[in-house]
Amino acid sequence: MAITPSLFDAPASQVLPGATDWITGTLLGSLAAGLCVIAVAFIGLRLMMGHLAIRDGLRVVIGCFVLLGAPLIASGLLNLTGQSEPPSRTAEAAPVLPKVSRAYDPYLGASIQSDGFQAPQQPVTGSSAD
Asked: Where are the domains of the chain?
């Protein structure tokens, strides 16, 4: 009997880099190349029939070149700035709550400072109507 992982368990790999890799693969992969080929063919047909201005046709063709050449353009711009490789996408997770050395008290959260010590209590004073 195989045990299926729970939806409440932490994922085995990082989710956001996987999602961005999937989007990048979709936008720059064979799907994008196929859509660009169909777009250029359709634009060429509309140009030959006289239904589209040359300026608009060139705009679509240049857009396809920019879309498919985006990785090469990005690496060229990085080389101009002096960086040989793109910055890493791994980020360290910041702790959400400060580490507290005493037992957990759910009602004490608002009075804990970021350094883990309890905030000093201010005495409650009544207002005097002088």
From this structure: 26-81
Q: Using the Cα atoms of residue 92, residue 96, residue 100 and residue 103 in order, give the sign of their dihedral.
A: negative
Q: What is the arithmetic mean of pLDDT over 68-79?
A: 85
The token duo for 87 is 């910055």
* pTM of the complete model: 0.48
5: tokens are 């992982």
Host H or E run for residue 15: helix 15-28
Q: Nearest CA to 114 among 128, 97, 126? A: 97
Percentage of the chain with pLDDT > 90? 24
Strands (E), the chain: none
Please calculate the CA angle 55-61-64 and round it to the nearest 5 degrees.
145
Question: Helix (H) and strand (E) counts for the chain?
Answer: 4, 0
Say if residue 67 is exposed, middle or buried (CB neighbours under 10 Å; 0-12, 13-18, 19+). Answer: middle
